Amino acid sequence: MLGLALVGARAGAAEGERQVPISRQQVTLTFAPVVKQAAPAVVNIYTRKVVHSQAPALFNDPFFRQFFGDQGLGRDQVQNSLGSGVIVRGTGIIITNNHVAGDADEINVVLSDRREFPAKLVGKDERSDLAVLQLQGVTENLPALDLSESDAIEVGDLVLAIGNPFGVGQTVTSGIVSALARTSVGVSDFRSFIQTDAAINPGNSGGALITSDGRLVGINTAIYSGNGGSIGIGFAIPANMVRTVLASILKEGRAVRPWLGASGKSVTSDLAKSLSLPRPSGVIIDRVVAASPAGKAGLAVGDIVRSVNGHEVNDVEELRYLFATMPVGGKATVETSHNGAVRTLSVVLESPPDVPARKLTQLQGREPFAGSSVANLNPALAEEMGIEFQEPGVIVLNVAPGTPAASIGLRPGDRVTNVNDAAVKTVDDLVRLTAQPQPTWTATITRDGQSFQFQIRG
To answer: I want to staple 119 with a disulfide (CB 3.0 to 4.6 A). Which of 107, 207, 273, 346 is the partner?
Structure first.
């Protein structure tokens, strides 16, 4: 392998010691053997989606319909898109980005040898921007890439990006890992990306980022660009995240992640000074759900989470990422400190409970919330929505346009806490309190941590 040639290049070097090229022969070493091994497992993905465009409201009026007929109604439009994917099982299991194939009506995959197969969506995870596909009609064992241990890579490691940029066909670019654990890229809920300067362009999404020994270390997912092309800053979802989501979707049909049941904030420079910490690092806990795995393990408000399973925790995003890459079952070792005292906790890795029952309800009638869909918030629903679970309550899931709920400004994610001076703790409470028409309605909702009260006439 090329990677082995580089590592063992210097005579007398200690086994496993990394070395830089020291001769012209070493500089002219080629990646061709690695590409020949890895490229057949990288595929091109073409998708079609039918989108219905809404007609202007005036065309729904019978008066205008008599002049324009059905021509004014909305039309179906076909959206075509392209991307890349990686075969990770010889049976035709492919991992790609959710934004490449997650919402497609038709998916076709072209292998590196130009053969084309239809594919079906096995499952998707919007929060990590990953999707799993299954090729249809495959009768042979296909080339597949093994997932690497992404926590083992370092800044400066050589990597190759393989994909289908701009639809020109399979392309290979090279570079190095330029940064790790990038948390400022808002393309998914779990922001801990591998940054590389290997050229990544539109169409590379879902393609492979591989190490110099041909192992899959990440799924290319985003670029930082002002013009839509590569400027040397690309981001990949680490293989550890891919491995967890892949296993969960293949087993459960959806992504299932451990629930910690605690939230906090990153330790900033000012906070580190006030707490007499040597440097800004870790997450200080400000809320713990009593019956959660964190609560049962003894995590408390004021504790600073320093590491998880030996991996240092630098900020909130890294803490969320570390738990998101662990499979349900088993335990996690969490090291904390509080007023200088260091503790090691064992946190059970459990899936978030779907309790209390959601009781999804569509509200109707002549009350202010009519036209909204609400549910009892529980840890499982909070996980699916990508929000922190703090306590049970009633949450708004959807608001139909042109309804009373829309007219008062209700939004998905709002939590209804009070109606006409009565507390709302469950969907049953809300249904009961809005069952009878009132001359005046008062209600309190919570949005983004802030409470709002409004009053309207019945």
So the answer is: 107
Say how far apart CA 346 and CA 143 lie, in whole Å.
40
Output the pLDDT for position 225.
59
Confidence label for 25 from pLDDT (cuts 50, 70 and 90): confident
Q: What architecture does CATH give domain 262-348?
A: Roll (2.30)
Task: List the catalytic residue out of 81, 125, 128, 129.
Answer: 129
In the chain, domain spans: 1-30, 38-256, 262-348, 361-457
Which tens digit of pLDDT belongs to each residue from 268-305?
Answer: 999 999 988 999 999 999 999 999 999 999 999 999 99
- Three-state secondary structure call for residue 6: helix
Residue from 205, 230, 266, 292 carrying the catalytic annotation = 205
pLDDT of residue 244: 95
Q: Residue 247, Cα to own-chain centre: how many angstroms?
A: 15
Predicted TM-score (pTM) of this structure: 0.81
Task: Please tell me the CATH code under which domain 38-256 is placed.
Answer: 2.40.10.120
CB atoms within 10 A of CB 335: 18
Residue type (1 letter), 234:
G
Instruction: Give the model's pLDDT for residue 183.
Output: 60
338 is catalytic: no
Q: Do 38-256 and 262-348 have matching folds?
A: no
Can you give the pLDDT at residue 394?
97
Q: Is 129 a catalytic residue?
A: yes
Q: What's the length of the chain?
A: 458
DSSP 389-458: --S-EEEEEEE-TTSHHHHTT--TT-EEEEETTEE--SHHHHHHHTSS--SEEEEEEEETTEEEEEEEE-
pLDDT tens digits along 168-189 = 888 999 999 998 876 655 555 6
Helix, strand, coil shares, percent, the chain, to 5: 20, 35, 45
Q: Which of 84, 99, 128, 212 is catalytic?
A: 99
The long-range contacts involving 346-349, CB below 8 angstroms and separated by at least 24 positions, are 346/297, 347/260, 347/293, 347/294, 347/297, 347/299, 348/293, 348/296, 348/297, 349/258, 349/293, 349/323
Determine the Cα–Cα distance for residues 361 and 331; give it in Å rounded to an integer. 36
Which one, of 76, 85, 83, lies nearest residue 41 by Cα?
A: 85
Indicate whether 31 pLDDT > 80.
yes
Q: Please, how many CA atoms are within 13 Å of residue 409, restricted to the half-sphere of its CB?
A: 10
